[in-house]
Design a protein that fits this description.
Layout lengths: L6 E9 L2 E9 L8 E6 L21 E5 L8 E2 L11 H15 L7 E7 L1 H12 L6 E5 L8 H8 L1 H12 L1 H13 L5 H9 L4 H13 L7 H11 L6 E6 L11 H6 L7 E6 L8 H13 L2
Parallel strand pairs: 3-4, 3-6, 6-7, 7-8, 8-9
Antiparallel strand pairs: 1-2, 2-4, 2-5
């Protein structure tokens, strides 16, 4: 149940050739808020779903949950092509523009980033490039620490883009091929489910093609991320990486290279584990995340 003093409303605005959609959550003090949580959801999820994580923040915080590209209303506008790659600088400027037009000036607002799965690499990229604009970062089941082979192939190679167009034209053949590989034990059960999920429907295939391409500039550079953490994260300005112990999609081990590269003297960076799989939005897991953050020193 949403408390009566809290409102949730869909939002939409345009900025420099792009339309951004999403949801806004806040109370009676929404106009004078001092903390705005900017949230990014996971692939094929919804912006409103990120409100499940509102218990992680102060009661008077405002949450601005932005839809990923090709989810809800977020999309490039003509004459930009549908697979146009969004620049991180345009996104952060667009966020500040929305806040300035709807709240107090951006200089009076503490900007917090929250990301889940694919939304985490959007958040981490913004932090890597604009760390001075942010006061805290929380990334859940964080994508962006390791690039999967399928993503690299589909987004970054001409052959991959061509193969994906073939999959879109021949979905039944693709389905037979994936099932056959599983039957011959050439791929794991998890990879079989992943392949079927991302290719079975026209909507998902288009979302993969355009959504992945639209966010291809949102991959944090490892050296840049290490530098941003070492130079900006402190005991007061913290970053939290939250992993599910049972997560087979983005396991804790994917953070090893980042953990090893960080300065041992850096405080305020926390790699935490909770008793979930990849899905973290359920109330019991959210409370576990809240306790883990509170207990982190």
């Amino acid at each position: 149940m949403i408390p009566p003093e809290i409102s949730e409303q869909p939002i939409e605005w345009e900025y420099r050739g792009w339309r951004f959609g999403g949801w806004l959550r806040g109370g009676e003090t929404i106009k004078s808020t001092q903390e705005v949580v900017v949230a990014f959801h996971g692939f094929d999820r919804s912006a409103r779903e990120m409100f499940n994580f509102s218990p992680l923040f102060e009661d008077d915080s405002v949450m601005l949950s932005i839809s990923l590209l090709h989810h809800d209303k977020s999309t490039p506008l003509p004459p930009l092509p549908l697979d146009e790659a969004l620049e991180p600088s345009i996104l952060i400027d667009g966020i500040e523009n929305f806040i300035s037009m709807n709240f107090s000036t951006i200089k009076k607002v503490n900007l917090v980033l929250l990301g889940y799965s694919m939304g985490s690499r959007v958040a981490l990229t913004l932090f890597e490039k604009f760390p001075y604009k942010l006061s805290k970062i929380i990334v859940l089941a964080p994508d962006g620490l390791k690039m999967g082979g399928l993503y690299r192939f589909v987004v970054n190679t001409r052959l991959g883009k061509y193969c994906w167009r073939l999959i879109d034209k021949k979905p039944k053949t693709n389905r037979w091929f994936i099932n056959a590989m599983r039957s011959m034990r050439l791929i794991s059960k998890h990879k079989h489910q992943f392949g079927r999920y991302h290719t079975d429907s026209v909507q998902i295939r288009r979302r993969v093609a355009f959504g992945w391409a639209g966010h291809k500039l949102f991959w944090p550079d490892k050296e840049g991320l290490v530098k941003a953490i070492n130079e900006n994260i402190t005991h007061e300005k913290k970053i939290y990486f939250i992993f599910g112990r049972r997560d087979k999609i983005i396991p804790y081990t994917w953070s090893k290279s980042l953990r090893d590269a960080l300065s041992k003297s850096t405080t305020g960076v926390h790699f935490l584990k909770v008793s979930s799989g990849h899905v973290m939005r359920h109330a019991s897991i959210v409370q576990e995340i809240k306790r883990a953050i509170k207990d982190a020193k």
